[in-house]
Amino acid sequence: MSREKSVAVTDAAIDKIKQMILSGELAPGDRLPKEADLAERLGLSRNSLREAVRALALINVLDVRQGDGTYVTSLEPRLLLDTMSFVLDLHRDDTVLQFFEVRRILEPAATAMATKLMTDDEIGELRVILESLPADPTVEELVANDLQFHQRIAQGSGNAVLCSFIESLSGPTTRARIWRGLTQEGAMEKTREQHTAIYEAIAARQADVARSWATVHVAGVESWLRKALA
C-alpha cells in the first residue's frame, strides 16, 4: 500500500473511532473492545486500527494502558471534542500554517544570534539534547526532543522577548509535528540530520550556515503541511 493510501486509511479509522465517541457509543473512561472485535466491527484491518489508536493516543483522546487495554480519556466533553477535532482541523484550517510562517521568520534569526552568544558550555548542553534522542525513537520521543532542542537555541539567543515568542509558537505547531512524524516517510531521519547540521554550524560559530539550516528545517515541515492541507 502506498504512503498516501496508508494515511487515508488511518484517517478513515480515526474518523470511525471518533464517531463512536461522538455518538455516545463510547463514553469518556470506557474501554475499547478487543482489537480483533473492534477491527471487524468497523470494517478495518488490524494494522490501520492500531495506527488510528496510536494517533489518538498521542493527542490524548485515547489512553493505552499496557496489559489493561485502551480507554477513552476522561476529559471534560468540551475538551475531548476540541482534542479530537484537530485531525479534521488540520485538513481544513490553514491557521497552523501561519504559525509555521512566523516560526520560519523568527527561528533562523534566533539561531544566528545563538551562534554568536551561546557559551561553549551551553553549546555542550545542546549536544547533550541532540545525543539524548534514541537511535530508533518513537514519535513522542522525537517531538519532545525537537521541542527541547529548539527551546535551548531560543534561550541561547540572549533575547528574552524573542525566546518567549518562539516558545509560544511551540504549542500550536506540536500536533502538526506529531502528525508529520506519524505520516511522512523519512520524517524522523530528516529531523535528526537537520538538527545535527544546525548544531554543527552553531558549534563552528557559523551564523549564516546555522541560519540557513534553521530555515530549511522549519520550511520542510511547513512545505509538508501545505501539501497535506491541499
Structure description:
This protein is mostly helical and about 230 residues long. The protein folds into two domains: about 80 residues, Arc Repressor Mutant, subunit A (Orthogonal Bundle); about 140 residues, Up-down Bundle (Four Helix Bundle (Hemerythrin (Met), subunit A)). About 75% of the residues lie in helices and about 5% in strands. The chain is built from eleven helices and two strands. Strands 1-2 form a two-stranded antiparallel ribbon. Helix 6 packs across helix 9, helix 6 runs parallel beside helix 10 and helix 10 runs antiparallel to helix 11. It is elongated. The protein starts with a helix and ends with a helix. The N terminus is likely disordered.
- Largest sheet, spatial ordering of strands: 1-2
- Strand residue percentage: under 5%
What's the total helix number? 11
Helix content: over 70%
Descriptive keywords:
Four Helix Bundle (Hemerythrin (Met), subunit A); disordered N terminus; two-stranded antiparallel sheet; Arc Repressor Mutant, subunit A; 230 residues; 75% helix; mainly alpha; 2 strands; elongated
Tell me the layout of helices and strands:
Layout: H1 3-22, H2 35-42, H3 46-58, E1 62-65, E2 69-72, H4 77-84, H5 86-92, H6 95-117, H7 120-131, H8 139-156, H9 160-183, H10 187-203, H11 207-229
Antiparallel strand pairs: 1-2
Helix pairs in contact: 1-3, 6-8, 6-9, 6-10, 6-11, 7-8, 7-10, 8-9, 10-11
